[in-house]
Design a protein that fits this description.
Helix content is 61%, strand content 0%. The protein has 310 residues and is mostly helical. The protein is globular. The N and C termini lie far apart (68 Å). The mean pLDDT is 91.
Length: 310
């Protein structure tokens, strides 16, 4: 069989591709002559990935702890990737929106069930020993998780419940940042003093967070939803997907995290405090801060009872 015509068509498409980006097709074809075939381990960067787990102790279960959190961060990256596509989509439609929301929800469903790995996959005695080498670090300091929150909803819905009436869209980002709900985990609002946990976190990420907040101020998932025609906003499948995402992230996943932390911290073998020294119960439990990404999709009774009876 003569494939000449087939190859000619491919060459023509390659020429069109490289012409569009002002590149010489011959140079790229010559490059193919000398390039090596790709392998799975090169493409996935397996060796580099498997060398990122560096223990601080000799306790075996610390490896579980490190690898598990690194997997979480990779999944957070995938979630942000999906949200970004909604944020930047021109001519956003219901089908595309719902598809992306459900992708993100499935990631969080997986994260929720995966907490059994943390709860049952480490010996309490080992964890209560190696955790002291982590002080003052904390899972609280996951920057990607904060970005997921910023990209999901309007900033007012992430403000500490006590201060929401004093903040609006005209509030400077710097001021709003100081009143985000998670500041309560490491800040005394009466004195303004911040814990080392919070100081270190802000020193590393505050500038990135402010820029990210500005970027997603008008293109977060909730803002983009409200840009849709009224008819589309009432689409039953899309509303169901939005509610599922909201509930999964802000109640189901949070409570799985909360219960896993409680399992270890309240085991009776430690001091009952989080590694970063945060008031972890009031920071994590959804009934205190009522973190809700899409408030108008819930009834008054649902909003009032958010996080209760769990």
């Amino acid at each position: 069989m003569d494939d000449t015509q087939h190859f000619d068509d491919i060459i023509k498409q390659l020429q069109e591709k490289y012409t569009k980006i002002d590149q010489d097709t011959d140079d790229h074809l010559y490059g193919l002559l000398y390039s090596k075939p790709i392998t799975y381990w090169d493409y996935i960067q397996t060796d580099a990935l498997l060398n990122l787990q560096i223990q601080r102790t000799t306790l075996p279960d610390e490896m579980v702890f490190i690898a598990y959190h690194q997997i979480n961060e990779l999944i957070f990256k995938m979630i942000l990737w999906e949200i970004q596509q909604v944020a930047e989509k021109e001519n956003l439609n219901v089908e595309f929106f719902e598809n992306k929301i459900m992708r993100v929800s499935r990631y969080f469903d997986m994260l929720t069930t995966s907490f059994n790995i943390m709860r049952e996959g480490m010996e309490i005695e080992q964890y209560m020993k190696f955790r002291y080498t982590l002080t003052p670090a904390s899972g609280f300091q996951s920057a990607q998780y904060r970005m997921i929150e910023f990209a999901s909803t309007e900033l007012i819905n992430l403000i500490d419940y006590r201060f929401r009436k004093t903040i609006d869209r005209n509030t400077p980002f710097e001021h709003a940042f100081e009143h985000l709900y998670w500041q309560a985990a490491g800040k005394d609002y009466k004195t303004g003093k911040k814990s080392t946990l919070l100081v270190n976190f802000e020193k590393r990420y505050k500038g990135d967070f402010i820029r990210f907040m500005q970027t997603y101020n008008t293109k977060n998932l909730w803002s983009r939803f409200k840009e849709l025609p009224k008819e589309d906003q009432q689409d039953a499948d899309l509303v169901k997907a939005m509610r599922h995402f909201d509930y999964t992230v802000n109640i189901t996943w949070v409570m799985a995290h909360y219960n896993a932390a409680k399992h270890y911290i309240e085991s009776g073998t430690g001091d009952g405090e989080a590694t970063g020294g945060s008031d972890w119960k009031k920071y994590m439990h959804p009934k205190y801060q009522k973190r809700i990404f899409f408030p108008e999709l819930w009834s008054e009774k649902e909003l009032e009872n958010w996080g209760e009876n769990i």
